Design the sequence.
C-alpha cells in the first residue's frame, strides 16, 4: 500500500494552494479530484477583487474582463453608480485559473489523481472509487460545501447555505462594470447580477429558496428570452463551520465555509486560509504531533475570522430589510459623500477595513442611523 504524508481531497483553489505549500516543504502529498478536469464546468462567476493579484496572481490568458466598478439597483429602480478609473476586480476563466494552480502544485512535487472519487477514511486508510486505497497521516477536505470528508469525520453541518445559478449568453459586453439587483422579490437571501465577460454576458442569482423560480422571473424582467449557451450553479455557504479541525483532518475553502456572506465569493479568503492550513500541517509533520493541527483553526479565525463575521452581520442586516427599506438604504448610499467613500475604501473581501474607516467619518454613517434598531437587533442575534 502506498503511503503519503497528506491526502488532499478536492483540486479547487483552496485544495491546490494547500497542496503546493506542503509539497514545497518536501512532504509526500496526493491530491485527488472526482472530475477529469478540475475547474470544469465552471461553477462560479470567476469575479475576483484586485486582492487576487497578491494572493495567487493572474496570468494574462486567465483574465476575461477587467472590472472598473458596480451599479447597484434598488427594488424601485434607483441606482448607485460606483465607477473608478482603476481596475477594482477581474472576471477570470476559472478553468484556466484552476488548471494553472493545479500545475503549480504538481511542479512543487505533489501527485495528482483526477477522476478519483474519495469514499471514506478509516484507521489512516483512504478509500476511493477508482483507485487503490492509500495510507496517509493527515487528510484535508477541500471538496466543497457538500464535503464527503466532512461527513466522514462527523463535522458540524454548514448552517447557512444558498443556491447560486448562472446563465451565459453569447454577447459582446457593452460595459466594464458589474450590475447588482437588490430585492427580496427578486433574490431573497442574496441578490441577482449581470457580469460582463470577454465574449459573453453572465446573468446569475443567489437565493435561499425557490432559486430557479426567482431566476426565471429575473431573466424575464431583464428581457432575456434567448437560450443560454451554458448553465451552471452550486451551493454557496454563507457561514463557516463551527469546527474545521478534527483529529488528523482539516477543512479548507468551501468545505470549511470560508466564503463571504456579503457576496458569496470566497477564493481570496480560501487561499489565505489554505496557506495557514499548510503551515499547521507542516509543523505537525515536522514535530510528529497531530495536536498541532488545532493551531490552524486558531490562526484562520485570527486572520480572516473578523472579516467573515462582519460579512455575515452585514448579510443578516440586509436580509432583515423589506423592499421599501432597501430603497431607503440605496437612496442614502447614492449620496455623493457615500459614493466617494465607497470608491476610495470599498473592498469586496475585507469589510472590516471599510467599517473602521467609516467610523471616523460621521458624515458617512450618521444617515444610516435610521436603521439603528435593526442593526442592533442583528448584532444581538449574531
Sequence:
Amino acid at each position: 500500500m502506498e503511503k503519503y504524508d497528506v491526502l488532499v481531497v478536492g483540486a479547487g483553489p483552496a485544495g491546490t494552494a494547500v497542496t503546493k505549500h506542503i509539497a514545497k516543504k518536501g512532504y509526500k502529498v496526493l491530491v485527488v479530484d472526482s472530475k477529469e478536469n478540475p475547474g470544469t464546468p465552471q461553477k462560479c462567476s470567476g469575479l475576483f477583487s484586485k486582492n487576487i493579484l497578491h494572493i495567487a496572481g493572474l496570468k494574462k490568458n486567465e483574465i476575461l474582463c477587467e472590472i472598473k466598478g458596480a451599479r447597484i439597483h434598488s427594488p424601485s429602480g434607483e441606482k448607485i453608480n460606483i465607477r473608478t478609473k482603476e481596475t477594482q476586480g477581474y472576471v477570470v476563466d476559472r478553468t484556466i485559473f484552476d488548471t494553472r494552480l493545479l500545475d503549480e502544485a504538481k511542479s512543487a512535487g505533489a501527485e495528482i489523481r483526477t477522476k478519483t472519487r474519495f469514499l471514506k477514511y478509516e484507521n489512516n486508510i483512504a478509500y476511493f472509487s477508482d483507485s487503490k486505497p492509500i495510507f496517509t497521516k493527515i487528510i484535508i477536505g477541500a471538496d466543497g460545501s457538500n464535503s464527503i470528508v466532512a461527513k466522514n469525520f462527523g463535522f458540524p453541518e454548514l448552517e447557512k447555505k444558498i443556491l447560486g445559478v448562472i446563465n451565459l449568453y453569447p454577447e459582446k459586453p457593452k460595459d466594464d462594470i458589474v450590475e447588482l439587483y437588490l430585492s427580496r422579490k427578486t433574490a431573497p437571501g442574496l441578490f441577482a447580477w449581470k457580469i460582463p465577460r470577454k465574449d459573453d454576458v453572465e446573468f446569475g442569482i443567489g437565493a435561499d429558496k425557490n432559486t430557479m423560480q426567482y431566476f426565471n422571473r429575473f431573466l424575464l424582467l431583464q428581457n432575456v428570452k434567448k437560450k443560454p449557451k451554458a448553465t451552471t450553479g452550486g451551493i454557496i455557504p454563507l457561514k463557516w463551520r463551527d469546527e474545521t479541525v478534527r483529529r488528523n483532518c482539516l477543512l479548507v475553502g468551501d468545505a470549511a465555509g470560508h466564503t463571504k456572506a456579503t457576496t458569496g465569493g470566497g477564493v481570496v479568503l480560501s487561499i489565505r486560509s489554505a496557506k495557514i492550513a499548510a503551515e499547521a500541517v507542516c509543523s505537525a509533520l515536522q514535530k510528529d504531533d497531530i495536536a498541532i493541527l488545532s493551531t490552524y483553526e486558531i490562526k484562520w479565525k485570527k486572520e480572516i475570522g473578523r472579516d467573515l463575521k462582519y460579512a455575515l452581520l452585514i448579510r443578516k442586516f440586509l436580509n432583515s430589510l423589506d423592499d421599501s427599506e432597501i430603497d431607503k438604504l440605496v437612496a442614502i448610499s447614492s449620496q455623493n459623500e457615500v459614493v466617494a467613500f465607497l470608491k476610495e475604501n470599498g473592498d469586496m473581501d475585507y469589510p472590516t477595513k471599510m467599517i473602521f474607516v467609516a467610523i471616523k467619518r460621521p458624515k458617512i454613517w450618521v444617515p444610516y442611523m435610521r436603521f439603528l434598531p435593526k442593526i442592533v437587533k442583528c448584532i444581538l442575534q449574531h
Observations:
- The first strand starts at residue 3 and ends at 9.
- The chain has three domains: 3-39+94-158+242-303, 47-92+161-237, 309-381.
- Residues 51 and 268 are 7 Å apart (CA to CA).
- The first helix runs from residue 13 to 24.
